[in-house]
Amino acid sequence: MKAFERALREAGRDDVRIAVGSWKFEFLPGCDRFLPQHVKLIPLDWEVLHDLSQMRDAESRRVIREVGKHRPVLPVVWAHHDDGNYVGRPYTPHSDFHSRLVDSRASGFGIIHWTTRPLDLYFKSLAKQVWRTTEDQPLRITCGEMAERSFGPGAGEKMAEYLRRWVTEAPKIGRDTSDRFIDRKLADSADVVPGYNERMELIDSAKRESKAVAQRDRLDYFKGLERYITDVHLTEEAFRRSQELYKVGDLAAARRAMVSCRPEEVIERYARTSSLSGITRGEQGLVASMNLRWLTHYVRYRQMLGAEPVRYNFSPTSHDPLAQSMGTFTFHFGPEREVWECFGAKETGASMFAVPDDIRISRDDTVPAAYEEICRNGIESDKSVTITLRPIMATGGRGQANPGELPAGRYGIELLMLDPHSTGLGRRLFDVSVNGETERIDIFKQTGRANRILVCAYPVVLERPGRLNVTLEPVKGKVLLCGAVLRPGR
């Protein structure tokens, strides 16, 4: 602390004050003993995640009260939390919040949150409660005031009741700090849908025709948010039911159970809802996160059922070692919203190449235009390379095995190649081995020029559930691969 304060003095920053904060409240007594008394302490009320807020009763607040006798303590409460309480409504605001702060001898408070709009009611309630003229204002009054402002005159009583029920009863879900957007079992739909229907009736009772555009947008926003949360529960429930059938070996029933699982549509509806009156950065982040960490698990499972092609793009991947949980997967989304898992140097042990943007890539009319972007990157190696084709995301977070299997049956393999360097025949030769069959590849010879896409197709049969290996063996120069597609039923 002395070192930091000296640095501030030398920098001429007498306007800056130093405070110390941390998760939970255990650090308060130690910091109180050793730090100068003018230093503020800022504890985070993290245990609210487990319904054990430090502000909940007089005894739990005692640790704040004891330290607050000697120095400023500013507890920080949570509007919502990323692990399981991130989307939908915030936590229910504390009642009698001013009285709790006084009892704690707190010299102020803070709120930690992510930037999504449904948190407004949480902020407004706590802010109202600490003003002298509205001290400890009940939640129902704040809901009524917010309903009048947000939805217009005449909506107060019905929409006030809606907001009160929403902030006290509506479900909270993901996102989790893991490779999955939702990493826990959600409530059964039977426990969610009745409340959803009742709250939707309250919204529908508001007279839309007499309202301004902004007020109608707010009504539609809450309707869309309610449907989104309910759809996530219904989608996850069907997903879970299908997985249970898969585990007992009933593949046909598992496929039927997945018919109602359309996470793509749920994400699209959420994006449209969030765009009402302008999407926030937090909502944009949720759309991206759902595509990367929710949708992809459904794609993987469909591949395990033999209901969707497996696609790999050999391109650079992202792994931030400074992140709380270093990135495991990188994905490419095609023009038809198809999901490709990206494999780069880390995943394959091969080196990467890239075709510059100003170089035109050519293709036959039979080659999909989407393959042009796939073939702008690739791997190459002067050693043998084996690629295992199986459902995407075969490695879980922190290196855990998560392989999955392909169901037995017929498949078609497409290997996508493009030679960016060769200028003549025989400059780059390698053998491709698929399911015991070997073919020698000379990309330049087969395409007639550099930077032209070659698609090599191989029919295969998987006799039992498992995976398929493709081996590239160098003959002259380096082996090369840009993408791979495994199509079931071919």
Helix and strand arrangement:
Elements: H1 2-10, E1 19-23, H2 28-34, E2 40-44, H3 62-68, E3 76-78, E4 87-88, H4 97-104, E5 110-112, H5 120-130, H6 139-151, H7 156-169, E6 172-173, H8 189-204, H9 213-247, H10 251-257, H11 263-274, H12 281-304, E7 310-314, E8 331-333, E9 339-343, H13 345-348, E10 351-354, H14 371-374, E11 377-381, E12 385-389, E13 409-417, E14 429-434, E15 437-441, H15 443-447, E16 454-462, E17 468-476, E18 479-481, E19 483-488
Parallel strand pairs: 1-2, 3-5, 7-9
Antiparallel strand pairs: 4-6, 7-19, 8-9, 10-11, 11-18, 12-17, 13-16, 13-19, 14-15, 14-17
Helix pairs in contact: 5-6, 6-7, 7-8, 8-9, 9-10, 9-11, 11-12
Account of the protein in words:
- With 490 residues, this protein is of the alpha+beta class.
- It has three domains: 2-137, Rossmann fold (3-Layer(aba) Sandwich), CATH 3.40.50; 181-302; 309-488, Sandwich (Jelly Rolls), CATH 2.60.120.
- It is 36% helix and 19% strand.
- It contains 15 helices and 19 strands.
- It has helices spanning 2-10, 28-34, 62-68, 97-104, 120-130, 139-151, 156-169, 189-204, 213-247, 251-257, 263-274, 281-304, 345-348, 371-374, 443-447, and strands at 19-23, 40-44, 76-78, 87-88, 110-112, 172-173, 310-314, 331-333, 339-343, 351-354, 377-381, 385-389, 409-417, 429-434, 437-441, 454-462, 468-476, 479-481, 483-488.
- The mean pLDDT is 92.
Distance between the termini: 68 Å
Radius of gyration: 29 Å
Largest sheet: 6 strands, mixed
The total count of helices amounts to 15
Q: What's the CATH architecture name of the largest domain?
A: Sandwich
- As for the CATH topology of the largest domain, it is Jelly Rolls
Number of strands: 19
Biggest sheet strand line-up: 8-9-7-19-13-16
> Assembly state here?
single chain
Helicity, as a percent range: 25-40%
Low-confidence stretches: none
Q: Strand pairing plus helix content: what structural class?
A: alpha+beta
Tell me the overall shape: globular
Strand content: 15-25%
